[in-house]
Structures are given as C-alpha cells and as structure tokens.
C-alpha cells in the first residue's frame, strides 16, 4: 500500500529573499533545516492552487501496441 502521509498534511516551501522557491516538503522541521542554508530565506505554508480549474480525470488512453500480423 502506498504511503498516505502527504495526502492529508500541509506542505511547506523554502523561499529565498529574492522570492524563489528552492525546496518543498511535507515536513516543517525539514523545511526549517533547509532554510538555514539560504541567507534571509523563510519557510511558508504552500498555498493551494486557485485557478478555478479541476483536473481532467476522463482523458482517453491511447494504445501504441501493434496488432499481430502487422495489420
């Protein structure tokens, strides 16, 4: 069974003084440790996407398998 620890928890980002996201994790202590490597960086909780779009879960599957006999 796959790990479900990331599905319910918060996500954290390490953001440099210039505003660049350099690291993302589900662990606040890990984000804090990584942020020490970047001067004047900060740890922020990741903001959820607000595009208003939903994921397309009904995409068609295309098979590239060839049929027997080369037809």
Please sum up the structure shown:
This protein has helices spanning 5-8, 28-35, and strands at residues 12-15, 21-25, 42-45. The chain has 71 residues and is an alpha+beta fold.
Feature tags:
alpha+beta; 3-stranded antiparallel β-sheet; 2 helices; 3 strands; elongated
Secondary structure elements and pairings:
Blueprint: H1 5-8, E1 12-15, E2 21-25, H2 28-35, E3 42-45
Antiparallel strand pairs: 1-2, 1-3
Amount of beta strand = 15-25%
Q: What sort of overall outline do the alpha carbons produce when their principal axes are compared?
A: elongated
User: What is the helix tally?
Assistant: 2
Question: From N to C, what is the helix and strand string?
Answer: HEEHE
How many beta-strand elements? 3
Largest sheet composition: 3 strands, antiparallel
Radius of gyration: 20 Å
State the distance separating the first and last CA atoms. Answer: 40 Å
Unreliable runs, pLDDT <50, ≥5 residues? none
Fraction of residues in helix: 10-25%
Average pLDDT score: 79
Secondary-structure-based class equals alpha+beta
Q: Strand arrangement, largest sheet?
A: 2-1-3
Q: Overview of this structure, please?
A:
This protein is α+β, with helices and mostly antiparallel strands and 71 residues long. It contains 2 helices and 3 strands. It has helices spanning 5-8, 28-35, and strands at residues 12-15, 21-25, 42-45. The two termini are 40 Å apart.
């Amino acid at each position: 069974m796959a790990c479900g620890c990331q599905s319910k928890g918060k996500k954290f980002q390490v953001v440099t003084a210039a505003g660049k996201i350099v690291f993302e994790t589900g662990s606040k202590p890990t984000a804090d440790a990584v942020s020490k490597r970047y001067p004047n960086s900060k740890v922020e909780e990741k903001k959820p996407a607000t595009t208003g779009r939903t994921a397309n879960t009904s995409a068609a599957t295309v098979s590239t398998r060839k049929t027997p006999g080369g037809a």
